[in-house]
Design a protein that fits this description.
Number of helices: 56
Shape: globular
Strand content: 5-15%
Radius of gyration: 43 Å
Oligomer: single chain
Mean pLDDT: 74
Structural class: alpha+beta
Largest sheet: 8 strands, mixed
Distance between the termini: 115 Å
Number of strands: 22
């Protein structure tokens, strides 16, 4: 019926009109018939199963009431096979449509699924046909409609799940999938759901006992795709152009087969070279100069699937695990060491528009904005890049002290490896590298080459900034902003100097150089004086000049010389009135106009910025401001000339240059935002040769960001002036309009002559062109072909007529040395971009979590010592530890998303307990790799990472130390420097940690984890504590805290030992020695809690008897110093501003209530004090066991002052307070000087309570009160409190003093006269005295 109808419709279409019109009507009729078919199938599905596909969604795919199909009258006239064949045809027709028929396809698949259940034999014969293979290819593999492909995926998934015992479709579908896999390589854009089905199908077969089908039909086709199919992915603008779903899906399906089917796993592992090919060629290979196709897998989806396949194969095969683990570790070790302290490397790729930003080094925005303007001039870019500039090597003795390596200076990124950073000459010598680092022309060449060919989002300008020198030879300070116009002129001078002797020697003047014409025109005679002056920028006044035209008119206005200022005419020999003016003599192709927005204010004696509104046109005719224009105006205004003479003069003037010589268009604007003292520069630039399309676009270049710019926004973004803005006025409770100055306005305008053709000539060396032609980077990457061979190289014919000249190029052929350096950076960028990715983290995590029976069954846990395991997996555990430590130290600790870091450390701790050799390897790695040790413990900015690394080293040392304790006496006889240099055992690492205490000075803000690690070490066992005590760690700690000369001498010795030690890798240079002048500032920068905690743990047993008594004393101190009845609670938010409160913010105090409470609390305090004194007698600090040489340091005033003032840990502070009172000869002086002098200076209530708590603790000690000089102490405290006017601290002190009086402690030493004197001082200071009596 459809065939006859179609022929009839075609005949009518031919009679009705044109074939095109008839085709449209036929398509409409086809759509109508398909819509009717959808309705019919929905009715049939509803009649049989009670719900149609459109209404039931996916649930209808589980056929219900399927037996009803056998009772349909339909099958009395047509066989089920014929009916389902027709349904398949309709579904295939719907799948070929791009849209609108996915519902019809769903109805068809619903009918087919139900029919397969009701008539399995008929459907089995149908699905065995070759037509069904084509149906799968059309609907699942190549359909342009993703909804159709998704519905086909669901249909096949339900189909293979049907199994009534007699008939199963699994083998048929497996055979069809195997037949279609080779054809899937040409449908990589639409094959996702096909391979997704294959993956699910493999899982279903493995659960249903169909592993033989996987091995028979699916493994070999999948292997063929993985090994033979090259992913169809290319680099475009440093990004993968597409995702090859065929390769990604084949990797995912093959991984499922390896993990779930034993027979398939054995077959896959027998394929030689599989893991090596996928890891080396598909994943780890890097693009290179001349071959940018690597790696084969470029998109995130493809790489993730390939990584997971490699992980599965590694876990299944030990040989593959060992080889690939070495490759991965080598790839991780190739990461630059320098980046470890700078965070995650730059992973942002070049924008799709093709332009690159520049990194701001601090205050180098002026440099970035001007450099981008210069780069966007194709003639200048081509001239700079084509210059064959030779750099003379600089010998080492002539090199500056801080010369940057060329790899870093040139690329502005990670330092290149030795192999990557070399050029074709066989490697730059250090002398040549130093010379290139200081050569501004070479650095500019490399910067332009990188902006043209690089793949990163922005270029690091540190190399260029380091090569730009001040006139006295000093490098430019990147932290100090320079005037953009001043930098522009200075850069041109340096470039002209470097270009001397080359064919590009005059390029700067040819492009930007113009000439002023200074004229003095006599008003009394016909003589005039003219003098030329070269310029690169034209500066015009803008004050009170609303337009650029007004500024140019003022520029050529001039001044009259008369009176005493008359001009002396040399021709006439007399003084005459004259007009002195300046105009434009010669115009350059590129005209830079500086708007003079900065001036010096003689009233304030400071520079200020003029934010006046100055409009400028996008097209301007400069003829009126040139010598010719002014001469024309003079001729036209001279009425004394005859018409013939006037015409002759005008003709002579106009014949100087053609009219288009004076026509300019705006191509760039440099914006300054801010004030004269500080601000920011950025640029708006119009591209000369479009990289995309035919219409030049405008872009905003703002340091690292490059974004499109709408030229219609120029008035709002560039003119300056004032703007009105609507803001909310809280006082008036309404929106008001405010006028404010626009601080962002144009500073330099860049105009280019309209229709200008470059007359600049230069050469490209033959070697550069040839070498560039060999490189074949893809779109968006390096275009290395010569001008005559590349379609992307735009050539503008030179007007010089030189046949050897190369014109204006959109992309210029580069020298080989520049290309090699750029491609070295590209390789690093691609490698870092792949490694610092979530799929790479998952890959390494899967590898180190490979199945380990001893670990997975719970035999090995984090706690406990080594386990003697009889299995043969020790080698893999050691490699897993090596891979995990390398990964977390080089990648995971530098990523922002490192919340899983503790989980990695826990896994490593388990592996160390299962492998003694692996544990000793971790210790040796921490010992020998000082860079790793310093970074993970000190320089890593993430505290959780540092803490996890401490846990890892603690676990390793706690496992290894017990086996080395019998050698501790032998180690003590060795000097620690010799032990550190030669021994990489556990005790060697402990000694290294102790010796490296000198590094705390450089990393004082992050030293807490270092001291925590030492605390963990002494808690491993008493032997470790005694070892460190014998080494003198206590004295070193005190000197470290105080920054004394003794510690400086230790640093000097550490430097000497590091210089003379030849064993092991070179460690980083020790920090500079602390001088006596900087000792105090150094000591104050070290956090006190952690080192004082360590010192306390070293001096006391692990379970300190004082700890038991501390809780009682601390509670008593808090109760004494809080004084709830005297000091009211802080006011709540609801009572803020209440009038019944005093100025101090506290509620009024009822004196009678206070006195009643005082009496009650005094009795309770007496009882508590008695109990405290009894319990305190058993917790004295025993000093007789401490080294006598250590006592002077522990009881010195400086150390105890620091311990009491800076420590915020109650138990630690309590220990040192008791230590303070243990030396009777020092009590009087120390208590007066330390406690009193610092209590009154405290501006924090909590710190004041700490000092009062110290006094309270001292009172509980036997005979301590006789040394407490109450007069001096309390008087000093009162004076300090009154001086600082701190009511909160005053109330704390008064409450404390009240309890002392109640306990009759101070009554004998504090008479009435002193009390009245104290009250007078307090009243004079304006502090509250309620309750003092």
């Amino acid at each position: 019926a459809e065939s006859s109808s179609s022929r009839g419709e075609e005949g009518r279409a031919g009679r009705e009109g044109t074939p095109e019109r008839g085709g449209e009507r036929e398509e409409a009729r086809v759509r109508e018939r398909l819509a009717c078919c959808e309705l019919l199938l929905r009715v049939m599905n509803g009649a049989v199963s009670g719900v149609g596909a459109a209404e039931g969604g996916e649930e209808n795919q589980s056929p219900r009431k399927t037996k009803a199909y056998r009772n349909l009258k339909l099958f009395d006239h047509v066989t089920p096979e014929q009916f389902f064949l027709r349904v398949l045809a309709v579904a295939e027709r719907a799948s070929s449509m791009k849209s609108d028929f996915d519902a019809l396809f769903s109805e068809c698949t619903s009918m087919l699924v139900a029919g397969a259940v009701a008539n399995p034999l008929d459907c089995a014969r149908l699905f065995a046909r070759d037509a069904f293979t084509e149906w799968i290819h059309c609907c699942l593999l190549t359909s342009p409609n993703v909804l159709i492909r998704k519905a086909a995926f669901r249909f096949l998934l339900h189909l293979v799940s049907i199994d009534d015992g007699d008939v199963s479709f699994k083998e048929t579908i497996a055979e069809k999938c195997a037949a279609l896999m080779p054809r899937a390589t040409t449908a990589s854009d639409t094959s996702y759901y096909f391979f997704h089905f294959v993956e699910k199908f493999v899982g279903l077969l493995s659960r249903a006992g169909g592993e033989a089908l996987v091995q028979r039909f699916l493994v070999e086709p999948l292997l063929a795709i993985v090994l033979e199919h090259t992913p169809r992915e290319q680099w475009e603008n440093a990004r993968p152009s597409r995702t090859d779903h065929t390769y990604a899906g084949a990797c995912t399906a093959l991984r499922a087969a390896v993990l779930r089917c034993h027979a398939a796993r054995e077959s896959v592992l027998e394929r030689e070279g599989l893991v090596g090919y996928v890891s080396q060629e598909v994943l780890f290979a890097l693009p290179s100069y001349g071959d940018s196709t690597r790696p084969f897998a470029k998109s995130t989806t493809t790489r993730s699937a390939a990584h997971q396949l490699v992980a599965a194969l590694m876990c299944a095969d030990r040989a593959s695990f060992a080889a690939t683990a070495r490759d991965v570790i080598g790839e991780l070790n190739a990461l630059n060491e320098k980046v470890s302290s700078a965070g995650t490397p730059t992973l942002l790729a070049r924008e799709s528009h093709g332009y690159m930003g520049l990194r701001n080094l601090g205050a180098t925005c002026y440099m970035n904005s001007l450099v981008q303007q210069l780069y966007m001039v194709p003639e200048l870019r081509a001239s700079i890049l084509s210059c064959s500039h030779e750099v003379a090597p600089i010998e080492e003795e002539g090199a500056p002290a801080a010369s940057a390596s060329p790899a870093h200076a040139a690329t502005g990124s990670d330092t290149a490896s030795a192999s990557e950073g070399r050029d074709s000459a066989g490697g730059d010598s250090k002398a040549l590298e130093r010379a290139r680092a200081q050569d501004v022309l070479y650095q500019m060449q490399y910067m332009f080459a990188f902006l043209q060919e690089g793949w990163k989002r922005y270029y690091d300008t540190s190399g260029f900034a380091g090569s730009y020198r001040e006139p006295d030879g000093t490098p430019v300070d990147v932290k100090v902003q320079m005037d953009a116009n001043e930098f522009f002129n200075g850069l041109f001078e340096r470039l002209e100097e470097k270009l001397k002797g080359t064919r590009q020697a005059k390029v700067m003047k040819e492009l930007f150089g113009g000439k002023y014409m200074h004229q003095i025109i006599s008003q009394e005679c016909v003589h005039r004086s003219e003098r030329e002056e070269e310029f690169f920028t034209v500066g015009v006044e803008i004050k009170n000049k609303p337009t650029l035209v007004d500024s140019f008119e003022l520029f050529v206005e001039g001044e009259v010389l008369n009176g005493d200022n008359k001009y002396s005419c040399e021709a006439c020999g007399t003084k005459v009135d004259a007009l002195k003016r300046c105009c434009l003599g010669e115009l350059p192709p590129m005209l830079l106009v500086q708007l003079k927005r900065f001036e010096f204010d003689f009233m304030t004696m400071r520079h200020k910025k003029l934010n006046d509104c100055v409009s400028f046109p996008t097209e301007i005719n400069l003829f009126p401001y040139t010598k010719e224009g002014l001469s024309r105006a003079e001729v036209e205004a001279n009425d004394a000339l005859s018409e013939e003479e006037r015409a002759a003069r005008l003709e002579a003037i106009l014949s100087t240059h053609p009219p288009e010589y004076y026509e300019y268009e705006l191509v760039g604007v440099v914006i300054h935002s801010g004030t004269a003292d500080f601000g920011h520069y950025y640029s708006y630039i119009k591209e000369r040769i479009p990289l995309q399309g035919d219409t030049p676009r405008w872009f905003e270049f703002n340091d690292t960001t490059v974004s499109p710019f709408d030229i219609s926004r120029i008035p709002a973004a560039c003119y300056g002036g004032f703007e009105e803005k609507t803001v909310w006025n809280a006082e008036k409770q309404c929106n008001v309009t405010q006028t404010r100055t626009m601080a962002n306005n144009a500073y330099i305008l860049v105009y280019q002559r309209k229709g200008w053709v470059s007359s600049v000539t230069w050469e490209c060396s033959e070697s550069a062109s040839d070498s560039s032609a060999d490189a074949t980077p893809s779109e968006g990457s390096a275009r290395g072909t010569s001008a005559s061979e590349s379609e992307d190289v735009v050539c503008v014919e030179s007007s010089a007529g030189d046949s050897g000249a190369v014109g204006c190029l959109a992309k210029v052929a580069l020298r080989e040395d520049l290309l090699l350096r750029i491609w070295a950076d590209i390789r690093r960028f691609v490698r870092d971009r792949h490694i610092f990715n979530d799929y790479y983290v998952d890959f390494v995590w899967s590898v180190i979590n490979a199945h380990d029976p001893a670990i997975d069954t719970g035999i090995v846990s984090v706690e406990g010592g080594f386990l003697e395991l009889s299995d043969d997996l020790d080698e893999r555990r050691v490699q897993s530890l090596e891979l995990a430590l390398t990964f977390i130290s080089r990648v995971l600790c530098r990523t922002k998303n490192n919340v899983t870091f503790p989980a990695w450390v826990r896994r490593m701790c388990v592996l160390m307990r299962a492998s003694e050799r692996g544990c000793h390897w971790v210790i040796a790695q921490a010992y020998s790799n000082r860079q790793l040790y310093l970074h993970m413990l000190f320089t890593c900015p993430i505290e959780a990472v540092r803490q996890s690394y401490v846990s890892l080293l603690t676990s390793a040392l706690s496992l290894a130390c017990p086996s080395e304790r019998d050698r501790y006496p032998e180690y003590l006889e060795m000097k620690k420097e010799a032990l550190v240099a030669k021994n990489c055992s556990a005790i060697g690492l402990i000694t290294l940690l102790y010796v490296q205490m000198v590094d705390v000075r450089n990393h004082s803000a992050r030293a807490q984890q270092y001291f925590q690690l030492l605390r963990n070490i002494i808690k491993i066992g008493a032997e470790e504590r005694e070892y460190l005590m014998e080494r003198g760690i206590c004295a070193t700690l005190i000197h470290c805290l105080l920054g004394t000369r003794e510690f400086s001498r230790k640093q000097k010795r550490a430097q000497g030992s590091a210089a003379t030690s030849s064993a092991g890798p070179p460690s980083p240079p020790p920090p500079p020695v602390i001088s006596s002048s900087s000792a105090r500032s150094y000591a104050s920068s070290i956090p006190c809690n952690a080192p004082l905690q360590l010192l306390r743990d070293l001096l006391l047993p692990f379970k300190c008897p004082a700890d038991r008594h501390y809780e009682e004393i601390a509670a008593l101190v808090e109760k004494d110093s809080d004084g709830a009845n005297v000091v009211a609670a802080k006011p709540s938010k609801s009572s803020k501003g209440s009038k019944d409160k005093s100025e101090s913010g506290r509620a009024p105090v009822d004196v009678e209530e206070v006195e009643e409470e005082e009496e009650k609390e005094a009795k309770e305090a007496d009882a508590e004090e008695t109990n405290a004194e009894k319990s305190d007698s058993s917790s004295e600090v025993e000093l007789q066991d401490i080294d006598p040489k250590l006592l002077p340091l522990l009881t010195s005033e400086d150390f105890l002052t620091k311990a009491l003032r800076d420590c915020t840990l109650g138990k630690v502070r309590y220990f040192f307070v008791r230590l303070l009172a243990s030396r009777s000869r020092m009590r009087s002086r120390l208590i007066t000087n330390v406690v009193a002098s610092h209590l009154g200076k405290c501006k924090m209530e909590g710190v004041a309570k700490q000092y009062l708590g110290c006094i309270r603790v001292l009172q509980n000690m036997p005979d301590a009160i006789q040394y407490l000089r109450v007069d001096d102490t309390l008087r000093a405290v009162i004076d300090s409190v009154v001086e600082t006017k701190t009511p909160q601290i005053a109330q704390v002190f008064f409450n404390f003093y009240r309890h002392q009086c109640a306990n009759n402690v101070f009554v004998a030493q504090w008479d009435a006269k002193n009390r009245e004197l104290m009250k007078a001082k307090i009243a004079a200071g304006g502090l509250p005295v309620a309750g003092l009596d």
